[in-house]
Amino acid sequence: MSTRSLEHRPTGPLLVAGTAICGCIIIAIANPTEPDSILPRCPTKTLLGIDCPVCGTTRMLYSLTHGNITAALHYNAIALLATLMLTWAWINWMLTTLGYTLPRWTHWTRWRYTPHTVITILTAWFLIRLIYPPLQTP
């Protein structure tokens, strides 16, 4: 089997999508907005009493899976932006893997640094939340 044929198999993107969908289903069923949820509480918030960079993300995903964008923005607007960026990168990855020719500005190789960008944004958000307490999640 040639390397070229392996490049156009959507196995990687489908595994990532399947994992994300399973995670969203668990979050949608578990309801992390309730205090007695089966999902564990944030260890950073529990142990240190401070918001971690992704604090509120589970509740944001719960709200998003139920179509409540306002609540999703309330819980963690930066994580919502990161989710949109990662979704866009995944779409580009999938289409490129399937052999579609995309405009140069949308090509997956242009978006290969999306995870790094997301991590940098979340780190900056973490530091801003530590400095400015009104931005901390309830």
- State the major sheet: none
Percent of residues in helices comes to 55-70%
By DSSP (H or I, 4+ residues per run), the number of helices equals 6
Protein structure class: mainly alpha
The assembly state of the depicted protein chains is: single chain
Domains (count): 1
Query: What is the 3D form?
Result: globular
Number of strands: 0
Strand content: under 5%
Spatial gap, N to C terminus: 54 Å
Spans of at least 5 consecutive residues with low confidence: none
Q: Order of SSEs, N→C?
A: HHHHHH
Chain-averaged pLDDT: 82
Pfam families: DUF2752
Keywords: Membrane, Transmembrane, Transmembrane helix
InterPro entries: DUF2752
Protein name: DUF2752 domain-containing protein
Could you write a compact summary of the structure shown?
With 138 residues, the protein is mostly helical. It has one domain (20-33, 43-135).
